[in-house]
Specification:
Layout: H1 3-18, E1 21-25, H2 28-66, E2 71-72, H3 73-78, H4 82-96, H5 104-112, H6 115-131, E3 135-139
Antiparallel strand pairs: 1-2, 1-3
Helix pairs in contact: 1-5, 4-6
């Protein structure tokens, strides 16, 4: 990973850790498979009323299986494939513009010391997580 990209990724990790952001990437496919499978099984066992009962039970089970899987955002960011890291880097660099820094510590200090810049980077990070990763964001424990 290029040094500047690594610095920006570390900045995003520091900001998200500072705000205690956690994300859950939605596993809607898994929930849909469970709901559909339960509806199919219900249909085989109980006919048309079984489809309704199986769909309802499968929907609840699918929802339960995919909920509550929140991970700290810094962990998610460091596990991103290179193409997604590049996209996030580009989004953040559009905000940082011509800002000059020598190392990650200086970059973090520059951004954290400027409330407007920090807010813009946080907004870009949230936008990336919700649009590109299709994830739900929570704050705190």
């Amino acid at each position: 990973m290029a040094p500047r990209m690594e610095d920006v990724m570390r900045l995003c990790c520091d900001i998200s850790a500072n705000q205690q952001m956690k994300v859950a990437v939605k596993n809607s496919t898994k929930g849909a498979v469970v709901a559909g499978g339960a509806a199919f099984l219900g249909g085989l066992l109980g006919g048309p009323p079984g489809i309704a009962v199986g769909g309802a039970v499968g929907g609840l089970l699918g929802s339960w299986m995919t909920s509550g899987q929140f991970k700290p955002l810094p962990q998610i960011l460091m596990e991103l494939p290179p193409a997604q890291q590049q996209k996030l880097y580009s989004d953040i660099m559009a905000i940082l513009g011509n800002l000059n820094w020598t190392d990650v510590a200086q970059l973090v200090a520059l951004v954290m010391g400027n409330a407007t810049l920090q807010q813009q980077v946080t907004a870009a990070l949230l936008s990336y997580v919700t649009k590109e990763l299709r994830a739900e964001v929570r704050y705190g424990n």
